[in-house]
Write a structure and sequence with these properties.
The complex is a heterodimer of chains A (326) and B (232). With 326 residues, chain A is mainly alpha-helical. Chain A contains 13 helices and four strands. Chain A has one domain. In chain A, strands 1-2 form a two-stranded antiparallel sheet. In chain A, helix 2 packs parallel to helix 6. Chain B is globular, with a radius of gyration of 17 Å. The chains are: A mainly alpha (326), B alpha/beta (232). Chains A and B meet through helix 7 and helix 8 of A and helix 2 and helix 3 of B. Chain A: This is Branched-chain amino acid transport system permease protein.
Amino acid sequence: MTRESLLNIAVLAGFLAVAIIASLSGQPYLVTLATKAVILGLAGVGLNLALGYGGLVSFGHAAFFGIGGYAAGILASAAQNYEPLMTWPMELAGTTSMPIIWATAVIAAGLIALPIGALSLRTGGVHFIMITLAFAQMIYYFAISWPAYGGEDGLSIYVRNSLGALDTMDPLTFFLIAFALLLLVLALTFMATRARFGLALAMARQNPLRLTSMGVRPFRVRLAAFVLSAMAVALAGALYADLNRFVSPSMLSWQISGELIVLVILGGVGRPLGPVIGAAIFVLLEAWLGHLTDYWQLPLGLVLLLVVLFARGGVIGLLTGRNANA
Amino acid sequence: MKTLLDLKGVTAFYGASQALFGVDLDVAEGEVVALMGRNGMGKTTTVRTVSALLRPREGAITFAGHATRGMAIHRVARLGIGLVPEGRRCFAPLSVEENLTAAARASDRPGGWTQTRVEALFPRLAERRSQRASTLSGGEQQMLAIGRALMTNPRLLVLDEATEGLAPVVRQEIWAAIHQLKGDLAILVIDKTLKELRQVADRCFLIERGRTVWTGEPAALTPELTDRYLGV
């Protein structure tokens, strides 16, 4: 087993240990922090598929994070207010069932990512960054100006959505749900990056023309990566909405897109668990420094600067050396 | 024999400068054709127009009955052109196995290429299976580049300077492989070693300043011709 695999297992075990010990010692706040890190890590894992493996620097993934969040918020608020979701062409009721909410979030984000990706991927480099940002901003302003679902004030989810008979309001239970989904998405991305799709994606990043002359169109491979990446981020968004029991347009803001990129770079671009480690550092810094000063992003910026300058493979690279697919 | 690839009066430009002034070239199914000429005469440019990496300005290119002018690069590749570009560029961070499996494409023709078959052709690749392409020697990278092209099950294998810069022993391995491949698929080969080309090629095309100037069997390649067009 490589050093990186050992580190990955240690990180995941560490998360689980922190949450369980914190829960047993009566510190729900810590459990919630760990849950937040897991959810942001999940979003980072999703973005990493596009950014790390595909080399697609999307500055618009907040759109999918927010779409996931609104899927949860809209479905839950309709159910909690006993209002139908829509009445035409057929009557659809809201729901508080997590699996249905997750599926809706993932499918909605996938459907929206498809045209966004198809248009954005016609460009490259800085243009790609800007066009993804532009699409995300469009969705952000739409959410602000659309009064039906709270507009600028957002939407509250009074009670966390349900999953079978589980008590999702219990912090540890909710942590475990998020953690299980993180493991699932990690396993899926792990398989995808080792399958022909993942190899073609790596090749499209390294030398698109050579891949094309092998008969594979980089555009399609990248579009698939972009859409899958958006779907994973939307799942994280739905969980994040449930964690805070609140959705607002701020989930769609460009700061979120930036934070997701920061997580990925901090932990290690193109490393399976890079974003999870990045999310842990991010959440810890926010929690520790956040109540000392309002300017906690300053030390975060310094950490990011150091990582970018001295550890090209992110924190994982620092601990385990340069890797395979970098 | 049936014509597989046919170029007629192909001209091509790099920006404003003209590189091809009228290349005529044809390769039949299963035939080995050598494309010869001095440096800078348009051999690589010709190959680039064949694989659609460079669009010809005039002339016609037909491959397996399809006019490929204006066709997208990946579509042309899918018609069955396996390009081994000059400089044997592999996907360096990926392993030998990954380089091969990613290229694999199901073939509608019998006798498809598999990793096992490529490794039988180049046993060294089997030894290096899980090694990164960047850690291979030049010769092994060349073998991998050829293997990768074969994995796409091409009808035409295009070898651009496949033995350039390799140790004599390794060159021999590559030539031996080309001899082994002969008959299975058509091969268009660009190389500088005349002796080997004479042995393997069914026909030769000489190009000079972007124009086909002579076509014939290797036996008809007189010292006057080689002296005039190849400078040997």
